[in-house]
User: Which sequence fits this backbone?
């Protein structure tokens, strides 16, 4: 059996039916094997970064792992943005790069390069992968594949990379004679004592739960909703936790953080117990002024990554190093009642009613156009739909305003936050599940960076509605420039050297149906256009802002625009 054929069968046997990539000389054997396979399809993505991020979207929906491949040298380095993104956001992806023949590889020679397009990708990606290895002997192929997948999918998940020499890919092998991988760590059955945590629950009068990305997943969400709904605990989410719970839940307050909903930021500041599940609780959630973050309250921080707990900058937390599902299952074995009162529930509902995002837009946002579109989109989405966003103002307009219905998914990049994320992520999601309707929201900047993705969407007739929120600026940066740089819009507006291509012409060149909207388009016409078009441009005039926004070194409950002192005092729980 040819080694490249074995790699394809290995992937297929583990539930993956799509591999994203870009063909090149050092990966041709593997692409040829994929092309001959009846079980795994190869999707040529027109750029390796698209492949790398599409594999993330696929993994999120598939529930197993994603796979992306590239040739050596520039192919491998082009995938690095997606690899880093998967690492920071804990997405299990197997990245395979082709490498020059092992007899052409420089190894430890003190030269820069020996083979054509040879690059030591292993050394480069080690800081952004859970595991990376050079496979230069076919005898090690099965071992390295099994080891890589085990590492990618256990513990805190993440990307792995195998760099496979071309001569290894074409070698004839007998898989049964190859050395397999066996995890040499004997599992220790841990017995977790949550008595202290349960005692805090029982005494808490103002409990709240913060859900992060570690809560995403069908089985986790089922146990999570049982825990939260049964005790009627108020809930907030991080950016990456959007969709972790059915957000039609009465006591879902909103998203917290630097661009979080004002109601969520206020409510969390008044909790006497915050249960943090599967979130790093980083400064984008707490604000940079961490000494004021729930300083007189208890924080129970549950995370699968011991290092995230050990090196956290907030001290005095009750750290619980557990998988979220295991935590919820163990917690369910305890008998307890929460001491929270009707007064607390009335308070959070009152805050939600007065300071929700719709009220924020009505009261504080001058240019309401982009928010009006997201509010309109809320009327079109249905249960099970998917929202992907790019990075920038479009991301935060959506994160603040989109209403997540049952079984909806929200895909965005949290840790690395590369522009050009939305379209590739949507592509991966669509190949994993073609039965979902996907709304891929982009800013004009991120859209232009990922424009090659349109070819894949058109070519495979994917169920993706590409929506470009076009304000002809890099809006998130213009907001900074307005606040801190005297409105000198260098590199962010037309006067500063930033231009936007003709989106209608691009749609036509990629064979997509184009539609154009603005805040002057009637609701009936807008709905008709979105239903018929593949690529929708929503034109936005004037300066745009994200609101609310937490300024540096301000407490979480005080985003701008600031409430006046008298009103601010009245929002505190008494």
Assistant:
């Amino acid at each position: 059996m040819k080694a490249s054929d074995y790699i394809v069968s290995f992937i297929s046997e583990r539930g993956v039916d799509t591999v994203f990539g870009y063909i090149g000389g050092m990966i041709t054997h593997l692409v040829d094997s994929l092309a001959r396979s009846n079980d795994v399809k190869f999707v040529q993505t027109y750029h390796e970064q698209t492949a790398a991020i599409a594999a993330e979207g696929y993994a999120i929906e598939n529930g197993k792992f994603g796979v992306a491949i590239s040739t050596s040298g520039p192919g491998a380095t082009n995938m690095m943005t997606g690899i880093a993104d998967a690492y920071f956001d804990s997405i299990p992806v197997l990245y395979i790069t082709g490498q020059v023949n092992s007899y052409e590889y420089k190894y430890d020679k003190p030269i820069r390069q020996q083979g054509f397009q040879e690059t030591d990708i292993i050394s480069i990606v080690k800081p952004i992968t859970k595991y990376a290895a050079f496979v230069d002997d076919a005898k090690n192929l099965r071992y390295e594949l099994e080891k890589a997948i085990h590492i990618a999918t256990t513990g805190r998940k993440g990307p792995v990379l195998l760099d496979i020499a071309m001569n290894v890919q074409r070698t004839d092998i007998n898989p049964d004679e190859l050395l397999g991988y066996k995890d040499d760590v004997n599992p220790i059955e841990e017995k977790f004592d949550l008595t202290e945590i349960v005692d805090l629950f029982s005494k808490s009068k103002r409990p709240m739960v913060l859900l992060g990305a570690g809560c995403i997943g069908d089985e986790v969400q089922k146990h999570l909703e049982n825990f939260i709904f049964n005790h009627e605990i108020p809930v907030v989410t991080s950016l990456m936790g959007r969709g972790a719970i059915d957000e039609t839940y009465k006591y879902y307050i909103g998203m917290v953080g630097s661009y979080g909903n004002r109601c969520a930021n206020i409510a969390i500041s008044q909790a006497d117990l915050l249960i943090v599940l599967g979130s790093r609780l980083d400064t984008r959630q707490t604000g940079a002024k961490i000494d004021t973050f729930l300083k007189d309250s208890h924080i129970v921080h549950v995370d699968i990554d011991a290092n995230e707990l050990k090196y956290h900058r907030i001290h005095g937390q009750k750290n619980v190093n557990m998988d979220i599902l295991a935590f919820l299952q163990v917690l369910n074995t305890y008998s307890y009642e929460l001491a929270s009162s009707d007064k607390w529930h009335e308070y959070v509902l009152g805050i939600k009613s007065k300071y929700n995002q719709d009220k924020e837009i009505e009261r504080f946002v001058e240019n309401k156009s982009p928010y009006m579109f997201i509010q309109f989109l809320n009327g079109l989405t249905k249960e099970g739909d998917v929202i992907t966003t790019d990075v920038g103002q479009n991301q935060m307009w959506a994160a603040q305003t989109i209403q997540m219905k049952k079984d909806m998914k929200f895909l965005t990049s949290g840790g690395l936050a590369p522009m050009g994320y939305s379209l590739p992520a949507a592509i991966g999601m669509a190949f994993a599940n073609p039965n979902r309707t996907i709304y891929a929201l982009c800013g004009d900047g991120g859209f232009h960076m990922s424009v090659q993705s349109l070819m894949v969407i058109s070519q495979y007739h994917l169920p993706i509605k590409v929506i470009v929120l076009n304000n002809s600026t890099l809006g998130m940066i213009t907001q900074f420039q307005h606040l801190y740089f005297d409105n000198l819009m260098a590199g962010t507006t037309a006067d500063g050297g930033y231009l936007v291509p003709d989106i209608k012409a691009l749609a036509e060149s990629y064979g997509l149906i184009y539609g154009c909207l603005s805040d002057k388009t009637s609701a009936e016409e807008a709905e008709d256009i979105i239903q018929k078009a593949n690529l929708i441009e929503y034109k936005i005039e004037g300066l745009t802002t994200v609101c609310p926004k937490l300024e540096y070194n301000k407490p979480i409950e005080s985003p701008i625009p600031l409430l006046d002192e008298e009103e601010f005092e009245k929002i505190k729980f008494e």
Summary: The chain has a mean pLDDT of 95. Residues 473 and 493 are 5 Å apart (CA to CA). The longest strand covers residues 93-99. The two ends are 73 Å apart (CA to CA).
